[in-house]
Design the sequence.
């Protein structure tokens, strides 16, 4: 199981470097809206770390997104795909920075949910920089599909 997790992290990192938008940001000399000492963003700057787990009747996502304001955060669920998008704005105009390591950054996290959820009863809250999303599992949508065996 641990090797699969490492492979998934590697695939996420590799996918980032295949993005045209990523390379445009690296080489775009006109992108001066948020000065940074490190022009190449890392994976952690783009994707929040999160956990997805199941309780008796709910799926729960906990995502680390410190510094993101409520008005800069959007959560949606469509066909068992949970999408969390947001922007962390740290740059302040007319401020004299001596060190500026926290760039303005946007992020998107997509999570395929293992079960259908009741989207009308989803609840979310932010506490200490951790977003919690509680989604009741919609058991009515889960069906076991019978398997028939042919004997030859």
Sequence:
């Amino acid at each position: 199981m641990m090797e699969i997790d490492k492979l998934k992290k590697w695939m996420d990192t590799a996918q980032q470097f295949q993005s045209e938008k990523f390379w445009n940001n690296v080489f775009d000399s006109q992108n001066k809206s948020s000065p940074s000492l490190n022009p190449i963003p890392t994976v952690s700057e783009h994707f929040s770390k999160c956990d997805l787990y199941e309780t008796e009747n709910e799926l729960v996502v906990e995502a680390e997104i410190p510094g993101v304001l409520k008005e800069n955060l959007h959560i949606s669920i469509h066909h068992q795909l949970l999408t969390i998008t947001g922007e962390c704005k740290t740059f302040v105009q007319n401020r004299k920075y001596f060190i500026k390591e926290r760039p303005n950054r946007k992020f998107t996290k997509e999570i395929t949910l293992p079960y259908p959820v009741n989207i009308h009863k989803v609840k979310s809250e932010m506490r200490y920089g951790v977003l919690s999303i509680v989604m009741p599992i919609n058991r009515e949508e889960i069906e076991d599909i019978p398997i028939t065996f042919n004997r030859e």
In short: The radius of gyration is 20 Å.
